[in-house]
Amino acid sequence: SKRKKIKINFSADAESVVLKADSNKIMQVFHNLIDNAVKFSPEGSEIDVALENNKNKVQVTVKDRGKGIAKVNQDKVFVPFTSIATKGTAGEKGTGLGMSIVKRIVDSHKGEIWLESELDKGTTFFVELPK
């Protein structure tokens, strides 16, 4: 994010949250989501990361203002080796595996992941995990 001068904003409605989860795997999920947001965002933009603490679950959103994902490709994002947009805004490369791994980790924690996106306006990924 420093190289592309991208500001990452974080907000949370709770000071701390306790989950029954593999912390390394959950860190991998959010590292990948934030890394992708940086990859597909233009220089000088912002990324918003927000945590919402509900009674039985936690929802985290990662929102960029980047390239976006065409509707026709949104169902393919979590499929392994899908290369719908493997080049970032600064030529960064991807393998097409990251999001399928993220989905597998979220699923293994009995959580859910989905996205909302619009071309040239950005993408928001939503992750819900049970407490």
Strand order of the largest sheet: 1-2-3-5-4
What is the number of strand segments? Answer: 5
Oligomer: single chain
Structural class category: alpha+beta
Q: List the total number of helices.
A: 3
Radius of gyration: 14 Å
Poorly predicted regions: none
Q: What proportion strand?
A: 25-35%
Report the major sheet. 5 strands, mixed
Overall shape? globular
Secondary structure: helix percent? 10-25%
Task: Indicate the mean pLDDT.
Answer: 89
Q: Helix-strand pattern, N to C?
A: EHEEHHEE
Distance between the termini: 30 Å
Features:
alpha+beta; five-stranded mixed sheet; 3 helices
Secondary-structure map with pairings?
Layout: E1 7-12, H1 23-39, E2 46-53, E3 57-63, H2 71-74, H3 98-108, E4 112-118, E5 122-130
Parallel strand pairs: 1-2
Antiparallel strand pairs: 2-3, 3-5, 4-5
Helix pairs in contact: 1-3
Protein model, in words:
The chain is α+β, with helices and mostly antiparallel strands. The protein contains three helices and five strands; from the N terminus they run βαββααββ. The protein has a five-stranded mixed beta sheet, covered by helices on one side. Helix 1 (23-39) packs antiparallel against helix 3. The longest helix has 17 residues, at 23-39. The chain is globular, with a radius of gyration of 14 Å. It starts with 6 loop residues before the first strand and ends with a strand.
Q: What is the compact description of this entry?
A:
By secondary structure, the protein is an alpha+beta fold.
